[in-house]
Amino acid sequence: MSSRYPKDFIWGVATSAYQIEGAAADDGRTPSIWDTFCKVPGAIFDGSSGDIACDHYHRLEEDLDIMARIGASAYRFSISWPRVQPNGKGPMNPRGLDFYDRLLDGLLKRNIAPHLTLYHWDLPQALEDKGGWAEYDTALRFADYAQVVAQRLGDRVKFIVTHNEPWIVSILGYETGIFAPGIKDRKKAYQASHHLLISHGLAVQAMRALGKNIEFGIALNLSPFHSLTNDPADLAKVKLEDGLLVRWYTDSLFKGEYPDDILVHLGSDIPTIKPGDFDAITTPIDFLGVNYYSRNVVDANKQVPPPGSLGMTEMGWEVYPNGLVELCTRLKQDYKNLPAIYITENGAAYSDKLDGESVHDEKRTEYLKLHTDAVANTIAAGVDIRGYFVWSLFDNFEWAFGYTMRFGIVYIDYKSQKRILKDSALWYSQFIASEKSSQ
Ligand code: IFM
């Protein structure tokens, strides 16, 4: 049968540095805001941290072999900023960079394309001590860091994502405070959000100036919002939530403005916007990363339990593959200058049980089948999607949930650090092989 995906479609797996690397104090790495936040009593559900995590830093070769065994065509990972630039500015740490050198070489040796993310939430604590993302200077520091990383590693990387999920960084980090750095101040949150977007654009400019053959993008956590009624108050809430999560980012990146309704909503918490800021934010990008997990159902006052005929994951997120089709087709319709899309994250947490040397995670496998099918349907609807990354390759440190949520297609026994391919990994491996052979 012929494939429903374009030729050279990328089938990948994804992780991030703080969630898997461990080795928190090795080879000159300094604390990030997550190292600090994990020490706050009650901040992490099980009181854990990423100190050891999957110990990936010390098990690189074994982990690369697992990716090869799965047959992934690409690996999306992030660089730990405090590992490679311990003070967030100034001298780079050669031992930290060496690790990513080894990672890149190991990937290329196995014919796996590296997709590098510069920032997956682990800001050097030294920069947070100066105000973090709420300060404009952090955007300048980020652009410098990006340029040095691209200079050093860009000969072996064809895809670079600047930020992963800036909504999470600003809103959960600076407004609700349930993520690092744990600040609860809406004005700061929106200032942080604005600086993250500027830093994205400045970083792309700085990296592009190197003249390397690299495609640049940003990964957003996006989700459609639905109401179960046609009540005007419920529909107004849908519009507001969509504005806060989706349009705030997509309008600024692709239209060069924040949505009017959201500026009105924010009132005096509107960020300070300087002339030229949107010139940076709208710096053209080569792809948009979409991290898709579920939809959100709301009424006028709150998030409501979705009807969920396909069930819920352990995170309480509804399994709703049609949301991916709806979201991507809508983006294509709303933004004439929308670049190609990569689904940079998609996956599900379920409570897995070890059965000898196996994990029979039927629900996760089903989730992946439904969503890879949704990707095919979105492509059939005319959207330019070029790749799909499962979140996550490994069970890992799920932020404020600690190790209580397992997203991996590879099981991690945290006591022995043994890796066990779950049935979902075996399914994905066969799926990739059959897709590759039908091209
Ligand atoms: O684990 C996270 C990841 O770091 C960012 N996107 C969502 C995932 C699941 O919550």
Element layout with pairings:
Layout: E1 10-14, H1 17-20, H2 33-38, H3 60-70, E2 74-78, H4 81-84, H5 94-109, E3 113-119, H6 125-128, H7 136-153, E4 159-164, H8 166-175, H9 186-208, E5 215-221, E6 225-226, H10 232-255, H11 260-266, H12 277-281, E7 287-291, E8 296-297, H13 322-334, E9 340-346, E10 354-355, E11 358-359, H14 362-380, E12 385-391, E13 410-413, E14 418-421, H15 423-437
Parallel strand pairs: 1-2, 1-12, 2-3, 3-4, 4-5, 5-7, 6-8, 7-9, 9-12
Antiparallel strand pairs: 10-11, 13-14
This protein binds 5-hydroxymethyl-3,4-dihydroxypiperidine.
5-hydroxymethyl-3,4-dihydroxypiperidine is lined by residues 16, 19, 165, 291, 345, 391, 398, 407.
Globular, elongated, flat, extended or rod-shaped: what is the shape? globular
How many DSSP-defined strands? 14
Distance between the termini: 10 Å
CATH topology: TIM Barrel
CA-based gyration radius? 20 Å
Number of domains: 1
Number of helices: 15
